[in-house]
Amino acid sequence: MADGDSGSERGGFQNLQREQDTQELASKRLDIQNKRFYLDVKQNSKGRFIKIAEVGAGGSKSRLTLSLSVAAEFRDYLGDFIEHYAQLGPSSPEQLAQASAGEDGGPRRALKSEFLVRENRKYYLDLKENQRGRFLRIRQTVNRGPGFGGGGPAGPALAGQTIALPAQGLIEFRDALAKLIDDYGGDDDELAGGLSGAAAGFGELPEGTSITVDSKRFFFDVGSNKYGVFMRVSEVKPSYRNSITVPLKAWARFGGAFSRYAEEMRDIQERLRDKGYERRDESEGDDGDGDDD
Fold it and tell me: What's the Cα-to-Cα distance from 105 to each of 81, 99, 100, 101, rounded to whole Å?
């Protein structure tokens, strides 16, 4: 993918030279609903960064650029949005009607919002919903020079790109981003701010995983915030989602409780199975006595 919106249009030659000097270190593709998302780790003379591109059904593209330090913060914000989304119940018809009652039929209000400001870039994150469902809208604006926010004779000084991530894909997207950060940004000093407070001593966290049981899928995601390390366990079905958050200090007790109940259920199942065999043997014995008569 081309490293497009990385500088001022007025510096065309410099941008072209920078693109030619840019190396792609890794790329990850995600297919979420009818959209494709590409997460590319790149490197140029200024360092490493991550390009996020959304490709719509018609081939239209939108791109965001994140430094590794911003990507780490972005990853943590995604965890907050995942937790908030998991706690939301199904939308009622009235809520969907209100959500689509904004200007031009667009979403009227955000269910949750956050923003980041780093140097000349601003990132706005808004969890919204419309008739097609819930999604996270991520907008990046870049200050192109003098006249920030006000435009001028030469045109607007603010350029922006927006991607819309379906809420069902938030966990998959966050996990892919976290893996790229872990693989290509773990040794960078600029990631030191990715963990703070009680979690500052953990420079590495286990990867998330999932298991599928019948029509349900359970996700186990390890994250951190200012209070420490936690595990978020999410239960996901086609029309339902719920989650709980377990702090690190309770993991062993949770695991012990699950193991104990698993053993007890195995014992119960074995006893029931043995009783079933006994009843079957008794029934066969009674049938045998009848034959002798």
Answer: 24, 9, 5, 6
| CB burial readout 223-236, b (16+ within 10 A) else e | bbbeebbbbbebeb
- Tell me how crowded residue 169 is: count the other CB atoms within 10 A of its CB: 18
The count of other CB atoms within 10 Å of the CB of residue 78 is 23
CA nearest to 6, candidates 54, 42, 37: 42
Report the alpha-carbon distance of residue 177 to residue 33 in Å, rounded: 18
The full length of the chain comes to 293
Q: What is the full per-residue pLDDT of the chain (293 aa) written as tens digits?
A: 434 444 434 444 445 455 557 899 999 999 998 899 999 999 988 888 999 999 977 778 899 999 888 898 899 889 989 988 988 877 666 665 665 555 445 545 688 898 888 777 889 999 999 888 899 999 999 876 554 444 444 444 456 899 999 999 999 999 999 999 888 875 444 444 444 445 555 667 888 888 888 878 888 888 877 668 888 888 877 666 677 888 898 999 999 999 999 999 999 999 998 888 777 777 766 666 555 55
Using H for helix, E for strand and C for coil, what is the string for 7-46? CCHHHHHHHHHHHHHCEEEEEEEEEECCEEEEEEEEEECC
Predicted TM-score of the model (pTM): 0.54
What distance in Å separates the CA atoms of residue 66 and residue 118, rounded to the nearest whole number? 10
**Helical pair 68-87 and 170-185, crossing angle rounded to 10 deg:** 160
